[in-house]
Structure formats: C-alpha cells, structure tokens
Design a protein that fits this description.
The complex is a heterotrimer of chains A (148), B (381) and C (332).
Chain A: H1 3-10, E1 12-18, H2 24-34, E2 45-48, E3 56-60, H3 68-77, E4 83-87, H4 89-93, H5 95-99, E5 121-123, H6 130-146
Parallel strand pairs in A: 1-2, 1-3, 3-4, 4-5
Helix pairs in contact in A: 1-6, 2-6
Chain B: E1 19-23, E2 35-41, E3 44-51, H1 59-63, H2 68-75, H3 83-98, H4 104-133, H5 136-157, E4 166-167, E5 170-171, H6 179-205, H7 207-213, H8 221-226, H9 232-235, H10 265-288, E6 305-314, E7 317-326, E8 329-336, H11 338-350, H12 355-363, H13 369-372
Antiparallel strand pairs in B: 1-2, 2-3, 4-5, 6-7, 7-8
Chain C: H1 3-24, H2 27-39, H3 49-59, H4 71-92, H5 105-125, H6 153-168, H7 170-183, H8 188-198, H9 205-222, H10 246-272, H11 283-302, H12 309-331
Helix pairs in contact in C: 1-10, 2-3, 2-11, 3-10, 4-5, 4-10, 5-6, 7-8, 7-9, 7-12, 8-10, 9-10, 9-12, 10-11
The chains are: A alpha/beta (148), B alpha+beta (381), C mainly alpha (332).
C-alpha cells in the first residue's frame, strides 16, 4: 500500500449535510459520532463541519426544494478525491415523501440525492442504524484510496 | 429581567444595526437545516430573523385522502425525535371520533413509550446544548446515558427511531410487555436515574458552565406568554402549564410539574434535567400497576365523522392534530407542533446576547424544524 | 570558532529542528487519543491519525482556489506561520546566541505578535461558502432589514483576533518577562546562564506564578478550548481556517503541532534554563515539557466550555494581575 492510500485510510474527514428528512437519520448519525458506544473516531473517521476539510459527504433526507442549491454548493466546495454516502431511505429513493402519491410527481421534493450529486455508497434503513453508517463509511473508502 | 437593550417593533431602527451575519443552512451548531440572519452591532445581536421552510415536505397534503391507518403511520415521519407523540395523537383523534374504548393495558404501555421518548428527547436536548456550549465531554456522557433509553425503545418497538407502537384501538402486538422486558425496563430506569443524578450534580457544580449559561437568552414570563411559547420553554419562565395534568391518560399517575423562574438557558437546561426523574417516576408507576388483559380492541366500525381535534403534551410542548374521516380516508388534516409557536420566543431570546450565545439561545427552546416545517406553504413571491 | 565547530553547530541546529518536527506531529494524536478519548470513555483514534496522517493525506488532495479576494496571500499564511515557529525555535537554540541582538526576549515577543496577526489576515481574506455565499433565498420580500450590509462570519473571527492581539495575549508576554526580571537581562544567553548558576526560575515563588500565567497565555495563543473564541463551533465553525484545503490545510495542521512544541521549548528555556539542543541530554526534558503541556492543555480543554467575552476578559485580567505579582515577586 502506498503512502497515499495508507494516509487516506488512516484519516477520513466526514461532513454531514441534512437535507430535510425527519431528523431520525440525522440523530442516529450524530449518535455514532458523539456516543462513546459507537465512537466513529476509532475507525479513523473524524467529524468536520467544513467542506474544504472533508473527504466524505454524508447526506440524509430527501433533498427538499430549498436544499438543492446548498447541497450542490457544498459538494462543489469539497476538493477531490471525494465520496458521497446517501444515508437513509429518503436519501436513497425519496422515502415516503416522494413516493406515496404513486405516479404524481412531488412538488416539494427534488431528490433523491443521486439526482442532484453523484452518490458512491448507499446506506439503507428508516432510520439508519449507527452500525450501518459506519459500514457505509468503510464501503466508500476504496474509492478514496484508489483515486488519483 | 434586562430588557432595556432589546428592540421591539416600535423602536426598531435601521441605524442601530451595523451588519448582518447569516448562518446556515449547514452549520455546526444546528442539528437541522435552517437559515438564521443575525443583525449584530459589535458582536451583540440586535435583531434576528429565522428562515424556516427548508425542511418543507408537505406531509399534510400527502396525508390528504389516505386510509386512516396509513395516515397514522405517516404522521410518525413528521419527526424522528418525537415520532411516538405524533402517531399517538393521530390515533387519539381517530379513537375520539369513532368513540373506541381502548384497553387499560394498552393505555399504560402508550404512556411508557411516551415517557421513554421524553427521556431520550430531553437527553438529546441536553447533549446538543452542551455541544453548542463547547463542552464535548458532557455531550458524550449524555449520549452514553441516552443509549440505554434507545435500546429500551428498540426492545419495545423494534426500531431505534420510529417505533409505531399505537394503533387504532390499542397497541401493536409486538410492543406488549412481558416479564423479561419489564425486568430490563426496571434495570434501565435505575441506570438512567443514577447516571443522570450524577451528571446533574457535576453540571450544576461546574463554575465555567454556570457562568456561560446564567442570564443568557432570557425570556421573561410576559414575553413568553405574549409570544405564545409552550411546553418546557414556557414552564422555564415560571408558568406551571402542563397538559399532562389535564389528560385522562395520565390520571392514574403521580408526578410533579417542574417550573423554573428565570427563563434563561440555565433554567431551560435544569428544567429538562429535573423533568427526567419525573418521567422515570411515571414509568415506574406504570410498570408497577400494569393491568392484565387484552392490548387491542378490534370491535370498532368505520364511520364518517366531522373534524375532530386532540391536544397532547409532548416533550416540546403542546401538540395538536385534527382531521375528519370520509369513507375511511382522512380529510382536512391539520397538525400544529410545539416548535412553531416557540419560534417567536427563539428570535426574541437571541436579542441582546453575544453572538456565540445566540445559537445557545435558540437551542434552549428545543427547536425541531422538521416538525415545524410541515405546515408552511411555499408561496412564490 | 573553527570550521569544524561551526559545522557541528549547524548540524546540531538542523538536528534539533528535525527532532522538534518529529515530536510535534505526534502531539495532536496524544491529545486526542490518550486524553480526550480517555476522559470521554471511548477508544479514540489511532495515535498517528490526527497529527501525522491527516497532513499527509491533505498533501495528496486536489489543490483548489479558495474563495478569497487574495488567494495567493491567503494560501501563503499558514506557511508563514510555520516559518515563524521555526524562527522562534532557532532563536532559543544556544548555537544561535552569537546573534546577540536577535537572541533576545524582544525578538520572541515580536515573532509571537506576528503569529497572532496572521489570524487577522486569514479572517479577513476567507470568504467561505457556509455564510453569505450559501445559495439560499433569505433576503426576500418581507424580510427584516433588507438593506443592511452583510458580512461573512470569518470577519467576526478577524475582529476577535484583533481583540486577542490587543488584550488576550497579555498573560504570555507578562510571563516571558518574569525570568527577564530575575536575570536582569533581555538576552536569552544571560537568562540561561543565570539559571545554570542559581537554579531554574521555575523553583521560585515568582517562577511558579509566572509558569501558571505562561500556561494560560499558551492556551490563548493556541486557541484551545476554553479560549477558542476564534474558532467557536457555535458561531464561526472554524473561523479563519475555513477556506484552507489540500496542502495548505496540511500546513495548518503541522503549524499547530509545531507551535505547541515551540512554545513549550520557550517555557523550558525561560523557566528551566534548558534550551533545545541536540548535543545535550537536556533535549529529553524539552520533549517531556512538550508532552506535559499537551496533556495538561487537553485535560483543561476537555473539561471546559468555550468562553465568550464575558468570561474571557475577566480571566485574562485576573491572570495578568497574577503575572504582575509574579514579576514583583521575582524582584524581591
């Protein structure tokens, strides 16, 4: 393993963006950062609130109309290489908010996330379990390691 | 208290404001997306404007025309923190409208769920408050205690966040309490009580934290009543209002209504710390007096009813649901959550404080914008 | 001095710099893993991650243009910070004492001032996406005060950096003058020589008080909790450092670790009479002091919330008074 890959695997900075879900996923993700039980730092993953520092963007929620542009802006602010994890049912396919009408398009929801920005790893669940978030972050790692 | 430097609608003057500092929608102190514009003069907040609507998903419109059972489970998705409150109140509306008798045992288990939810919500509030204060260690301690409550919720409801325990006429069969679950609940409550007492003692004895939170973000009693604050935010200003006192579900239980006097961040934080033992008390009483019998009443019939209303007390204040039933489908849904009436108090609490305390002043009202945003219509201007 | 002597001295200087650098990359890891994580009852990150692997990772990231009116200057600032740290370290090395005019306390104070001023420049040059630049329709019809000038929250940081220069850095400068008062000279060589004769300054009453004041000043200069008003998470997130990406952020990481080592070496020089010198066994004591500073700083920061001006100024004033007492005690 080269020094590049090794250092990337040993320090991953994660940024969280909430795009208007029900708060359930948000709090479970905060839980796996701040709770000593899950303690994301032992997997060499650090929380940051600054897109310039981040490697991995964790997005929750179905991306409401007002959140579309901020999400794009934050995604563009992250320097390469970067990975995006969509966490939760809403981020994956719009959740109940988008799909409950059947074929009628939703006026409020612009999501799911992969229609706005490219998504690399998907974490299912309503709400996501903290263990799954950790697994998702690890699943996004190879992308970072192999990037130029 | 010190209201001299606060700006009211009459005295608002453009000259007094130097600059505007906008924050959000992504910010380290906010758990949810919202935009706040702080108008500062030498780092003192002179005025504040909160722009919500970022979370708007139009839940009430989605619920329109759904079968009532489906609509009930959808209300859970309004908020991930107080999901049980929403589904409980929504079920209560249907039960009130259709005049359904609910078995005693189901009522007790609903109360246990609601109080467990209050526990986890209050601990999340305290943890978030400490995170905004900059005290990472206390925040982590509280998340550690909260984890026990989350495990208990998962044990009863099967999921860590949205449990879906109440259904029309009773509770879901999965959520019934057996011997083993009661045992674990008892142990969990003992653990939480011991740890939270320990935390409270250390929290109150910490001079640095006390100096940070005393006298910050003051909402006076008059202002709180004028701005229609509700729930713990109102109680922290000295108004002993708790809807649980008036709800017939809570009649068998003994508990105290906690009030504080000052309406500042300290009062609000201590308010939650002191409410946690009351919730534990209610859960213990419910476990002890848990009646035997069925958990669901299935002998009810669907009819058309006009708009029915229901109010309950949830961790953040007073929650209102109302809808009418038409051929088994819900119509005219209105949900009013406690955070929307607290927004006025949040903006008011910011004013006159240092900008670092402004976020703290917002957090002290326990904002939940995912709840709040569902009711607002986005109008193209 | 013969050529051989000068060569040995040069090697010693370079060797000391390398040792300083090698130690400083482990300090953030020690802070995070052994202190914060231990106090917070969790496992915590590996020792190398926060201080060593993070900067290396940032060197391999894409270089982007920061949102700044002067991107070149903005990106150069953290490197200037590193240079100043290196200069500070050079000044206190015994091999450099023959530059008598530079190897004085005045030069130390001047360089530390420059270190602080960097934050002011950073704050006014950073224009992050997280504030005004966020594409969100907030000034709309019916909004409050639509015509008020808008500012980035880094500008708040810049204003706070200015107040730090004006007031917040008093403790460290007062503490620096405690050994000066005892030795009766502003030259580092005299201060070190005085302590070799009379024993370390630290073991006198004035010295103990001075050490406490120095430590508080050190924490203010490091912007650590509870004095982190430049980068409070509650309002300015990371403040002046918001726009640094890729290798420039790596410099930010490195300069933080290096500054801990440099400031603790200054402490060892002024209060223990042991300047960092590779040719002597006392470099071990320098390293131990650096570790001790890191650990005590981490313990204090783990147990304290962030201060606002309401707490910050009384603490600075109280500590400054203590520093004045220390100077008076050192004259007695």
């Amino acid at each position: 393993m080269s020094l590049k890959s090794y250092s990337r695997a040993r320090a991953v900075h994660v940024m969280l963006v909430y795009t208007g879900g029900c708060n359930g996923c948000d709090i479970e993700i905060v839980n796996c950062v701040l709770s000593p039980k899950f303690d994301i730092e032992q997997y060499k993953i650090f929380l940051t609130w600054n897109p310039r520092e981040a490697d991995v963007l964790v997005v929750t929620g179905p991306v409401t109309k007002h959140n579309k542009e901020p999400l794009k802006a934050i995604y563009e602010a992250i320097p390469e290489p970067k990975a995006v994890i969509a966490a939760g049912a809403c981020a994956l396919m719009g959740g109940v908010y988008k799909n409950i009408h059947g074929d009628i398009p939703s006026e409020e929801i612009c999501g799911p996330v992969d229609e706005i920005i490219p998504v690399d790893a998907k974490v299912p669940g309503c709400a996501v379990r903290p263990e799954d978030v950790l697994a998702g972050a690890v699943a996004a790692l190879p992308l970072l390691l192999e990037a130029m | 208290m010190d209201n001299d430097n606060k700006i009211t609608d009459e005295t608002r003057n453009e000259q007094e404001i130097e600059t505007e500092v906008p924050m959000g929608t992504v910010h380290s102190a906010a758990l949810e997306p919202y935009r706040i514009r702080l108008f500062v003069e030498d780092e003192i907040v002179r005025d504040a404007e909160m722009t919500i609507g970022v979370n708007h998903r139009g839940i009430e419109r989605i619920m329109e025309g759904l079968p009532v059972e489906k609509a009930n489970s959808l209300t859970e998705k309004i908020c991930g923190i107080c999901s049980n409150s929403h589904i409980w109140n929504s079920v209560l509306v249907a039960e009130k409208a259709l005049e359904i008798e609910v078995p005693e045992r189901a009522l007790y288990i609903r109360i246990i769920m609601e109080e467990l939810e209050r526990l986890h919500s209050h601990m999340l509030y305290l943890a978030h408050g400490n995170e905004v204060l900059g005290h990472e260690t206390f925040s982590m301690r509280l998340f550690y205690i909260r984890e026990t409550v989350m495990e208990l919720l998962r044990m009863i409801g099967g999921n860590r966040v949205q449990y879906g325990v109440p259904v029309i006429g009773g509770i879901r069969p999965r959520a019934d309490l057996n011997e083993m679950r009661i045992q674990r609940l008892t142990e969990g409550m003992d653990f939480v009580e011991e740890k939270i007492t320990d935390f409270a003692e250390r929290f109150v004895a910490d001079p640095m934290i006390m100096s940070r939170i005393t006298g910050v973000g003051v909402i006076s009693k008059e202002d709180a009543l004028r701005l229609s604050a509700t729930g713990p935010t109102l109680r922290a200003t000295g108004v002993a209002v708790d809807l649980r006192r008036d709800m017939k579900e809570y009649d068998p239980f003994e508990f105290d209504v906690i009030t504080q006097d000052d309406g500042d961040v300290k009062s609000n934080l201590l308010m939650r710390v002191l409410e946690i033992p009351e919730s534990i008390k209610i859960i213990r009483q419910a476990i002890k007096a848990l009646p035997e019998g069925p958990i669901t009443n299935r002998s009810w019939e669907m009819q058309d009813v006009t708009i029915t209303k229901s109010y309950i007390e949830v961790p953040r204040g007073k929650l209102y649901h109302s809808y009418s039933l038409d051929e088994g489908r819900v119509r005219n849904v209105i949900v009013r959550t406690p955070s929307i009436t607290n927004i006025g108090a949040m903006e008011h609490a910011c004013i006159g404080n240092h900008i670092t305390d402004a976020q703290l002043a917002i957090v002290q009202c326990d904002p939940c914008f995912t709840c709040t945003d569902r009711a607002i219509q986005i109008i193209q201007l | 001095m013969t050529i051989v002597d000068s060569l040995i001295a040069l090697m010693a200087v370079i060797g000391t710099l390398i040792v300083a650098f090698a130690v400083s990359v482990w300090l953030p890891g020690i802070e995070r893993k052994f202190v914060h994580a231990r106090i917070q009852q969790r496992i915590g990150p590996p020792l190398s991650s926060p201080g060593l692997m993070s900067p290396i990772k940032f060197f391999f990231k894409e270089i982007i243009n920061p949102n700044s009116p002067m991107p070149g200057l903005y990106n150069a600032l953290p490197f200037i910070g590193i240079i100043i740290s290196v200069l500070l370290l050079l000044i206190i090395m015994p091999q450099m004492y023959f530059f008598a005019t530079f190897a004085s306390v005045i030069a130390l104070v001047g360089l530390l001032k420059v270190e602080e001023i960097l934050y002011m420049f950073m704050g006014s040059l950073s224009k992050s996406v997280l504030s005004i630049n966020m594409p969100f329709p907030d000034v709309v019809k019916g909004a409050k005060h639509p015509n008020v000038p808008r500012s980035f929250f880094e500008e708040l940081s810049s204003m706070r950096a200015f107040r730090l220069i004006a007031l917040g850095s008093f403790p460290i400068y007062i503490a620096i003058f405690v050994p000066v008062a005892m030795a009766g000279s502003i030259f580092l060589s005299d201060i070190v020589a005085y302590q070799q004769l009379h024993g370390p300054v630290l073991f006198t009453i004035g010295g103990i008080l001075g050490a406490i004041v120095f430590f508080v000043g050190f924490m203010i200069l490091m912007n650590e909790y509870p004095f982190a008003i430049l980068k409070t998470k509650a309002d300015v997130i990371e403040g002046p450092l918001l726009e640094y990406a890729s290798k420039y952020r790596a410099y930010v990481y490195i300069s933080r670790g290096l500054l801990i080592f440099v400031l603790s070496s200054i402490f060892a020089t002024l209060f223990l009479g042991l300047p960092p010198n590779l040719l002597s066994w006392t470099i071990l004591i320098n390293i131990i002091v650096a570790l001790a500073f890191t650990i005590i700083m981490a313990i204090v920061s783990a147990f304290s919330p962030v201060f606002t001006y309401k707490q910050f100024f009384p603490v600075v004033a109280g500590v400054s008074v203590l520093g004045v007492l220390a100077i008076i005690a050192s004259f007695l």
